[in-house]
Amino acid sequence: MAVSDDETGISEDPEVRFDVAGKIVQRAADTVMDKSGDTAKVVFTPSGRRGVFHLGTPLLEAARELGVDIDSVCGGRGLCGRCQILCSEGDFPKLGIVSTTEHLSPFSTTERRYGERKTPLQPGRRLSCQATVRGDLLIDVPAESQLHRQLVRKQAEQREITLDPVVHLHYVEVQEADMYEPKSDMTRVMEALRYQWGFADLSWRFAVLNDIQPALREGKWSITAALHRGKEIIAVWPGYKDAVYGLAVDVGSTTIAAHLCDLNSGEVIGSNGMMNPQIRFGEDLMSRVSYVMLHPEGVDDMTRVVRAGVNQLISQISSEAGISPRDIVSITVAGNPVMIHLLLGISPVELGGAPFALAVDSAVYTGAKELALDINPGGVVYILPCIAGHVGADTAGVILSEQPHVYAEVSLLIDIGTNAEIVLGNRQRLLACSSPTGPAFEGAQISCGQRAAPGAIERVRIDPDTLKARVKIIGSDLWSDDPLFEGSIANTSVTGLCGSGIIEAVAEMYLSGILSSDGIINGSVADRTDCIVQDGRTFSYILYRGTATISITQNDIRQIQLAKAALYAGTKLLMDRMAIKSVDRIRLAGAFGSHIDVKLAMALGMIPDCPLQQVASIGNAASTGARIALLNNESRDEIETTVRQIEKVETAVEPKFQEYFVNAMAIPHKTDSFPNLSAAMMRPDRLPSVPVQAGVIPGKCRQRKRTG
Question: What is the pTM of this model?
Answer without folding.
Answer: 0.77
